Amino acid sequence: MGKFILRVNMSDLSIKKERVSEKYRVLGGRALTSTVVADEVNPTCHPLGPNNKLVFAPGIITGTNAPSSGRLSVGAKSPLTGGIKEANAGGLPAQKLARLGIHAIIVEGEPQEKGKFYVLSLAKDTAVLEEAGELTGKGMYETNELVWKKYGDGVGIIGIGPAGEMLMTNAGVSCNDPENGPGRYAGRGGLGAVMGSKGLKAIVIEQKGPGEVQIANPELFKQGQQKLTQGLLSHAVTAQALPTFGTAVLVNILNEAGGLPTRNFSSGRFAGAGKISGEVINEWAKTRGGKVGHPCHPGCVIRCSNVVNKPDGSYRVAPVEYESAWALGANCEIDDLDDVAELNRICNDVGLDTIEAGCTLGVAMEGGVIPFGDGKRAIGILKEVGYGTPVGRIIGNGTAFTAKAFGVTRVPVVKGQAMPAYEPRAVKGIGVTYATSTMGADHTAGYTVATEILSVGGKADPLATAEKGALAKAFQTSTIFIDATGYCLFIAFAVLDLPDALQGMMDTVNGVLGTNYTLEDMGRLGSEWLKLERSFNEAAGFTKQDDRLPEFMYYEKLPPHNNVYDVSDELLDSVHNG
Amino acid sequence: MIVYLYGKFREKVPGYTVEDDCVLQVDTGPEETIASIMERLKILPGEVAHIFLNHQYSTPSRKVRAGDRLAIFPVEMAVLYRQYFAKYEE
Cα(A420)–Cα(A399) distance, rounded to whole angstroms? Predict the structure, then answer.
């Protein structure tokens, strides 16, 4: 069985199976979603109208037995930023799609009957659109439970909660984890609202076993798979830190760095950081019976996910990641991890991106809607998103929208998207990424691969080199390459330090595709794909003035370093034009 | 000076909890460095992932003074996009 593309037209409810062109054959993940969007979507279209398209694509490696390679990319024109968007997630769906031979799903058009929702049911050789029926209006926990009851335990689910159904621009796309929790989100950029605008409540994927993933050079693939696995299992970050503490280990670290955004980005330190840290999550796993070292998809050897239980030992949510603990905790001055975990659960249920939700609550608190630090009232207004009340609809439309609604001028967004958990005034390099990413403020857009690997800037700190712009671009090009493979971005920690692991990654890509890509090709291809995304954004109306951090960061000093953001506009402009 | 300890280094402070700050008050002599403080606390260089002196990402060679704030993270907590941090040396 060869790979194919499924084209799902929601206007006439037709499904077509299309062959994969050579141009698309060598693409996967973000490279494929962005190429399809650039090829088929008018950059000036309304993101929630009939002319936007929603694309789902497993990575190049996804579906094989390569470690930590189960990512699903989701792409479209973003209703939050107005530009091109890709968000990706782990969970069950990506591997199952790949093993059914599905290279991508392109969802287009819009339903003739507004407010009517459908489920796309996929299995070997079948694809059917069914009315969503009782799933309509349901939160993601109940949705997933009902889907497993109807379609069988273990099916993959891609879905949206009420926020997506109500077309709120902070709506994310949920993927279910191995226990059927909805917490693996392609969260950023409002792609859940695009899915809602298509009238698609969920995609259900029935698939078991290794499937029929094509590998052009099995021997090379196997060598690469072994090298990368060995690297991941020997590196301190991927073998020890992430499985032990999860990503929330960063709470205490960034707090000590003075770079943990606190109280709506007005300080880099949070007095209550220790109470919402990965160390506490680790401790609770022992005392409450939750879990650390939890894999978000089968075959992940990093296992950075966790399960956080209630005080009585019952399940509350999975996972609580660093970004979520920070956004719903420090940024709102909430230091009760139970409240933070409950806010996280609401996001997962209603269908919201936790970063955007936490930043939104931060500006709402600054606007006087509720006090900073009041976890219980934060839970109350976040629940309103799911009810669709006027306040809920404001909150559900994200940080910039909420700031306008409540007259707040400290608005931590770039291109309309809220900033993640690294304060640019304290961590200036990541500020370059936030400013110049095609995605809006996005920490994952500039994840680093070693400077020496890409022969840019040497081994020194990037902000101490004369090639800062080129280095920032190198980060972005290497990141988009990893996003295309379907590997979890956290493999970069091992790839960063271990040449064999890097070669292993390249060998698996070449093994699957039958290509002879070199490390230079990694930079070249990444650069081409970034250019494609930039071109889309330019056609959508973005200029270099959009590659800037919010104004307040240029004049408000951030404690404890008391720095402003002083990276020049010229440097920011040089990232993509140098 | 005050030393903040994280991860397994917390065990050097009797009665520690993971939710609260785990701190040691340490007297500093002349020419004292982060490395010499670590040696006094029986922390081996290979056990350490990240060091922050007064919130600056630092090497063990930096001198320390009374009133400084030093934070030490073990290898088991080595998650950081460290390329983004300027590393301060003496």
Answer: 12
CB contact under 8 A, B6 and A430: no
CA-CA distance, A551 to A409, in Å (whole number)? Answer: 9
Write out pLDDT tens, residues A1-60.
589 999 999 999 999 999 999 999 999 999 999 999 999 999 999 999 999 999 999 999
- Considering the domain boundaries, does residue B90 fall inside one? no
Q: pLDDT at residue A120 above 70?
A: yes
What is the structure's pLDDT at A140?
Answer: 98
Q: For residue A435, what are its two tokens?
A: 């400013």
Q: What is the pLDDT of residue A431?
A: 87
Average pLDDT over residues B8-32: 93
Q: What number is the average pLDDT over the span A206-228?
A: 95
Does A282 sit within 8 Å of B79, measured CB to CB?
Answer: no
Among A96-110, A230-244, B69-83, the least confident range: B69-83
> Within 13 Å of residue A159, how many CA atoms lie on the same side as its CB?
39
Mutating which of A245, A252, A306 best tests the B interface, going by the most B Cβ atoms within 10 A? A252
The bridge status of strand A173-175 relative to strand A156-159 is antiparallel
Distance CA A548, CA A413 (A): 10
Give one word for A368, left, alpha or beta, with left for phi > 0 and alpha for psi -120 to 50: left
Most confident of A461-475, A480-494, A503-517: A503-517
Q: How far apart are CA A73 and CA A80, in angstroms?
A: 17
| CB contact burial A443-462 (16+ within 10 A = b; e otherwise) | bbbbbbbbbebbebbeeebb
Under 8 Å between Cβ of A54 and A504: no
- Is B25 within a domain? yes
Tell me whether residue B44 is in a domain.
yes
Q: What is the pLDDT of residues A448-480, one digit of tens each?
A: 433 322 222 233 343 443 456 777 788 888 889
Distance CA A178, CA A287 (A): 23
Under 8 Å between Cβ of A364 and A371: no
CB atoms within 10 A of CB B38: 20
Mean pLDDT of chain A: 93
Whole-angstrom Cα Rg for chain B: 12
In a domain, B72, yes or no: yes
C-beta atoms of B55 and A560 within 8 A: yes
Nearest by CB to B87, which of A268, A427, A461? Answer: A461
The pLDDT tens digits for A160-200 are 999 999 999 999 999 999 999 999 999 999 999 999 999 99
Cα–Cα distance between A206 and B15 in angstroms, integer?
Answer: 52
Whole-angstrom Cα distance, residue A301 to residue A305?
A: 11
CA distance B23 to B1: 10
Q: Does B2 touch chain A (CB under 8 A)?
A: no
Q: Give me the CATH number covering residue B78.
A: 3.10.20.30
Question: What domains are there in chain A, each with its CATH number?
Answer: 4-205 (3.60.9.10), 267-418 (1.10.569.10), 428-577 (1.10.599.10)
Tens of pLDDT, residues A247-301: 999 999 999 999 999 999 999 999 999 999 999 999 999 999 999 999 999 999 9
Backbone angles phi and psi of A344, in degrees to 5: -60, -45
Distances (CA, A) of A40 to A30, A45, A55, A536: 15, 11, 11, 11
Q: Test A240 with B71 for CB contact under 8 angstroms.
A: no
Expressed as residue numbers, the domain containing B73 is 2-84
